[in-house]
Amino acid sequence: MRAMITAISHYVPEHVLTNADLEKMVHTSDEWITSRTGIKERRILGQNLGASYMATHAAQNVLEQRGVPARELDLIIVATVTPDMSVPSTAALIQDKLHADNCGGFDINGGCSGFLCALTTGAQFIESGRYQKVLVIGTDAMSAIIDYEDRNTCILFGDAAGAVLLEPTNNPDWGIEDFELHLDGSGAPYLCVPAGGSLQPASLDTVAKKLHYVRQDGKKVFKEAVKGMKKVVSSLLVKNGVDAQDIKLFIPHQANKRIIDAVANSLNLNSEQVYINIFKYGNTTSATIPMAMSEAYLDKMMQKGDRIILGAFGAGFTWGGVFLKWAI
Ligand code: UT7
Predict the structure, then answer these.
(1) What is the reported pLDDT for 256?
(2) Catalytic status, residue 57
(3) Which of 24, 73, 109, 124 is deepest in the core (most CB within 10 A)?
(4) Across residues 111-130, what is the average pLDDT?
């Protein structure tokens, strides 16, 4: 038994924040942002909506696409670093909005690798034979934890959600073949939100010091991201006896076009084999991979049985990859 993706969708808020808008907010330029990151614009969620709002839209699309009523879901797994609240889980809020009255669920924080953590976790419930329908969502309202006075970070991130339905199959031409997940907590200081947890609870002081916003050493993260993603993807290729030429699409986490290009070049992948949509959305953390997969599917870039590689790197440090055969 293996797990396959049987439906996929995504949701982005309507409001667009362009590089020209950012030029009016911080000392930056469209030229700098485009050449250093590949980003032209990103989407921003309205206030008082939360990550569950975007996730619920993406999830409803997935259920509709597959014709599955919400009450048939066995499990909802949500990858997010921007939960609506720290308690309860965002999965619980989505369950309620979907009226998915017969399921369990929980959140996963795997930084920018969160969706791959959630996807591979969901796959275990299917492969064990325990569950038949697992909804896996990546959703992040990054605008909630970004300082729009900090040009180092505010140009990078955006808001979005993506969702997939996992179901069992016995067909070896479909579904998740293999994966790897890695964690190195010595990377924690290089990409973090210092306050708001149990270590530094919210206080007037933490707010005054802007400790509730993303802090990043971009150069360090950049270097580690190229190294980690390259290593994990080549390891999956070697382990599974697959040549780079046999991969239909490499769908990487979208943090910086230069990171994606460096990884793709080192793996000898040509540009048609690499899916990039960062120019439209920026880095949407847990949502980048399901959203990119969803757009690639809508663009008919994948056929049943095609070999697909997903790769991610993010806060933790976390990194990972998934090798799958497309099934829809
Ligand atoms: O998904 C989670 C993982 N996150 C990532 O993968 C992000 C990884 N890092 C990156 O993508 C890049 O490091 C950044 C895009 C964040 C920065 O690019 P960089 O080429 O590493 O630039 P830098 O940080 O070395 O900055 C170069 C210069 C600096 O000026 P000086 O010190 O050379 O005078 C910065 O102050 O560019 C300056 N700078 C900017 N200038 C205009 C930094 N941000 C900006 C900006 N506009 N927005």
Answers:
(1) 98
(2) no
(3) 73
(4) 98
